[in-house]
Amino acid sequence: ARAFVRLLAGRLSRNGLQLEYTEGAPGPVVPAEAPKEAGGATASRETARATASAPPGDAPQLDPTTDSSHSAASRVQVHASTECLASMGPVLLVSDLGVGSVVATNAGPAGTSTPTYLAMNPFGCLPALRDLENGVVLGQGSAILRYLAMRFAPELYPPKDPKRRAFIDWAMDVVDCDLAPDALVTVLPLIDFRDGPDDQALAGREASAHLEQFASQFLRERFIGGKRPSAADYKVAPYFFCFAHPAVKVQSEVSCPDRIRQWISDFMAHCPSCELLHTARGHALKQLLDKTEWGSPAAMMLTDPTAAPPEAEDLLSQLAVGRGSVKLYGSSASLDCLGPFMLGLDNKCAELMDKMSGQVVDPEGLLEAEPLRLAPTMKDGDYALAGSAVILRYLAQKFAPRFYLPDPAIRARIDWACDCFAFNGLYEAAVATIHPCLGFGELREDIGALGSALKGRLQQFADVFLRDRFVGGDSPCIADYRVAPFFFAWGHPTLRARCSIIVPERITKFNADFAAAQPTWQDVVGCIWLGAEGGARPEPRATLKPTSPFARPWAQ
To answer: What DSSP assignment string belongs to 381-392?
Structure first.
């Protein structure tokens, strides 16, 4: 009853009405702070790609250890903050669906560092989810959005439309890869959550370019979900909302495209909970930006409904798939490509177009992008995708479902592992350690300290996701394919010698188990040019026959 009255009071207040009650009288009492209107958050610099958020401040907070607001109608709890961009996607969705409550959680000793929170999300970043019905606990905003959609609103992540699902996955990854880091240097400095960049004009230009690219790729239809919003639309909403604020334009020199401003108008018409981006007892994102000298009404953040209409209502349905084999474009010199390459070969569902083979015909120029930046790319008929985890999900759902079982709880764990590796510091560590040893860039001056700290990060990943033989349990799943090439490289003697990396025993065991389980693993090992401890590139292994799918012109 308490949760119901709390929800009702919030809905009424947003419509200019008030719910009267008597404190201490018989019956339900509305607490002073509604959980979805409170909180503040932070993101450490190490987890900035995953959580563009705020440091602990004077925002009201609700300690998860004492919150008892859920009732029988509250099926999930989302631990989040209205000041955290990464949190607001799940907050908006759970509020619109009416399936749970929002536990206001700050970063720091009273929030994400409490034993209760760390037991739920050991990585200590926002947001997190607890399912009160089946015990599922989950971190990372994209993984939470997928889970909420699969469990309560399948139309937001359509199970029978692999093209749309993969498109949604791709958009969410681009938000984490590009837009979230842009927000760190263009939005958060304006509300005193961190220092600004050395070159604000450059940061503004880069953010503007990423917004243009995102709009041209993902907003040709009305929403990323087509005619209606999807999980990815909820993910990107708080970022678009902030980038469109006049303060961000004037002070951070970010130009928000009209197409995105129009999207904001359309999304607000479909999403009742968008009010939480406007007002949350002084701690909504707009309220924080309004405190700057360029604060303004919300109307200034939108465009005329006819200013930037979408090209069409549904473009993906017009793309034909399944005409011949799926083609994977990339480079076997890129560890990002090796996971999809292995899954495609192991299940005989994809043809490799390896840039390193020297024998690939590429009339569309899909191999011209830098291999460590945009690879891999996939083509299935007329349909194209990019990104390692995105392609792994698509291949598994369409050709090999045993690697990505349809149960939402199982997929939630797999998605969390993939996103945690990519956006919670491990992938950045790979760029700084593995890539230079492969010949891409130079080692940092502090590589020894970074290498030593990596052992703790890997142990933490193992403690959370490798309690069984693999992330997927007794057999590998797509998350295992995603991390395996990187874990092997970190365990190589060259990385120990040059980067002071000593992997935990659990990672060593994972490497051995995965090698034994995968028929193409020896070919993959031959592709990772690490060689002896000195870092010299090795001669081809005996197992790399000229007909090997990973064969390359080693002499070159």
So the answer is: TTEEEE-HHHHH
User: pTM of the predicted model, to two decimals?
Assistant: 0.81
Return the amino acid letter for 141: G
Determine the Cα–Cα distance for residues 75 and 89; give it in Å rounded to an integer. Answer: 18
Output the pLDDT for position 260: 93
CB-based burial, 217-247: b 16+ in 10 Å, e otherwise: ebbebbbbbbeebbbbbbbbbbbbbbbbbbb
Mean pLDDT of the chain: 79
In tens, the pLDDT along 501-515 reads: 999 999 999 999 999
Give the DSSP per-residue string, 342-378. Answer: HHHHHTT-EEEEEGGGS----TT-TT-S-TTTT--EE
Closest CA to 531 of 486, 506, 497: 497
Q: Which tokens in the block code for residue 11? A: 């809905």
Q: What is the mean pLDDT of residues 344-372?
A: 63
What are the angstrom distances between the C-alpha of 377 and each of 164, 277, 350, 365, 392?
A: 16, 35, 12, 11, 11
| C-alpha atoms less than 13 angstroms from C-alpha of 296 in its C-beta half-sphere | 15
d(CA 392, CA 479): 8
| 366, β-bridge pairs | none
Residues 6+ apart with CB under 8 A from 89: 141, 144, 145, 234, 235, 236, 237, 238
> What distance in Å separates the CA atoms of residue 287 and residue 396, rounded to the nearest whole number?
43
